[in-house]
TrEMBL record:
Keyword entries, A-Z: Heme, Iron, Metal-binding, Monooxygenase, Oxidoreductase
Gene3D superfamilies in the cross-refs: Cytochrome P450
Protein name as annotated: Cytochrome
Source organism per UniProt: Cystobacter ferrugineus
Lineage: Bacteria, Pseudomonadati, Myxococcota, Myxococcia, Myxococcales
Keyword Metal-binding among record annotations: yes
Amino acid sequence: MSGRINLLAPEVRANPYAVYAELRRHAPVCQVDPGGYWVITRHDDVVAAFKNPQLFSNTGVRLATKPEWLGHNPFADSMVGLDPPQHTRLRNLVNRAFGPPALARLEGRVRHYAEAIVARIPEGREVDFVDAFTLPLPASVIGELIGLEPSLHSRCKRWADDLTSISANPQDEKRREEILAAVRETEAEMAKVLALRRREPREDLVTDLLQARVDGQSLSDAELMSFMFLLLVAGLETTIHLLGHCVRVLMERPDVLARLRADHSLIPRFVEEVLRYEPPVQAFGRLTTAEAVVSGVRIPAGAPVMLLIGSANHDDARFPDGDRFDMDREGVNNLPFGHGIHFCLGAPLARMEARIGLELLLSRFERFTPAGPLEWNHSFTVRGPRVLPVIAHGPS
Ligand code: HEM
């Protein structure tokens, strides 16, 4: 292989897995464009880096940057950009709010939203499934989770897009104004939610977070706010793409669709294989705190590094015939949700959304056919369809 690979080149976006395979074979640790990031591509190396937060620090996560024009960044204190002991303190405080009782409480709400969304999908005519299904379900669930009124749920995606654009540090004045407006609007709505739950506690996540105590400590208002911002970003785009990949695989594989329609208990197994085969989070960032040697290659101290989950999940050394979709694979693979101390807090919720959403889709429709070209989003860290034209066919 000669020259740096550009992970945002259109041909790589369409199928990054062929490039990842080349990298694993010939340059398992190297620098790529854009940005000159170092990438780690082999499964065992990716897992080892996730397990070593002392050497691979989360303080490099771009969400934590503070552009001067903004004055502050609501993500700056969020746990995903922190290392122990600051991370440990925050994680201990929020962990319980995501435990099995909280999840059980949410299940009915997820079903409620999914039923209404699936019932609205038109039958037998072209529709963008991102608009009709993959976006509204996670937007409603995240909106509900952070305590927003249902009328505000449809704004969550725009807020999340604007909030993540902070890290790109746009030079365009108009774009900065839009982002600033979104930050103020989101902060105002979340401040309302916090004030309301303080006055009238409910059985919900925000109340649990307000009441959380570990060793006599609680979350400060700034920490609560940045955690809610983090949920909005971490829980939305990722789950949208998981659902998008599920629908795409169902369109491409009639045999798999037939098995799932005949037996809904196979849906969780299907979702696991989609998470392996098309992980929505393809890469997560770290910063080396000292020189690191990985697969014999020296990465200097202070280098931005991407742990390529997308590549690790296709590594034949861990998953035989890794480029093949096979929902009968044995064993659990949690890597799509990271590994170690920053392991995704929302993994059970994302799995639940996919299970319930698919159960309802497959109960109402017999098959799904492409109605036009799929458009990929433009990012190499989070991958999925931005536009997904589909015709959903009811039972004939
Ligand atoms: C962290 C993936 C859904 C909340 C992570 C990480 C990954 C990930 C890879 C690890 C980051 C790191 O190592 O630094 C995903 C995927 C999802 C998903 C693929 C959907 C398919 C969600 C949802 C929520 C959520 C639904 C919340 C409702 C979080 C939070 C963290 C996180 C708060 C940070 C944890 C920490 O820093 O300790 N996620 N996520 N995620 N995720 Fe998710």
